[in-house]
Amino acid sequence: MDAFFALANGMAVAIQPMNLLYALIGVLLGTAVGVLPGIGPALTVALLLPVTYKLDPGGSLIMFAGIYYGGMYGGSTTAILINTPGESASMATALEGNKMAKAGRGGPALATSAIGSFVAGTIATLGLAFLAPWLVDFAVRFGPEDYFALMCVAFVTVSATFGTSPIRGLTSLFVGLTLGLVGIDKLTGQARLAFGIPELLDGVEVTTLAVGLFAVGEALYVVSRRHHSEEKLEPVRGSLWMTREDWQRSWKPWLRGTAFGFPIGALPAGGAEIPTFLSYSTEKRLTKHPEEFGKGAIEGVAGPEAANNASAAGTLVPLLTLGLPTSATAAMMLAGFQQYGLNPGPLLFAERPELVWGLIASLFIANAMLLVLNLPLVGLWVKLLAIPQPWLYAGILVFATTGTIAAKPSVVELSMLAGFGVMGFLMRRFDFPIAPVVIGLILGPIAESQLRRAMSISLGDPMALLQSPVSATLLGIALIALVARFVMRGLGRFRANED
Amino acid sequence: MIPFHTRLLGAAIALALVAGVPALAQPLELKVMAPAAPGGGWDQTARAMQQALVAAGVARSVQVTNVAGAGGSVGIAQFVNGAKGDGNQLMVNGFVMVGALAMNKSPVTLDQVTPIARLTEEIQVIVVPANSPIKTAQDLAAALKADIAKVTFAGGSAGGVDHIMAALFAGTIGADPKKINYIPFSGGGESLAAILGGKVTAGISGLSEYDGQIKSGKLRALGVTAEKRIAGVDIPTFKEQGIDLVLANWRSVMAPPGITAEQKKTLSDAVEKMVKSDAWKGILKQKGWDDAWLGGDAFADFLKKETARVTDVLKSVGLIKS
Question: ipTM of this model?
Answer without folding.
Answer: 0.73
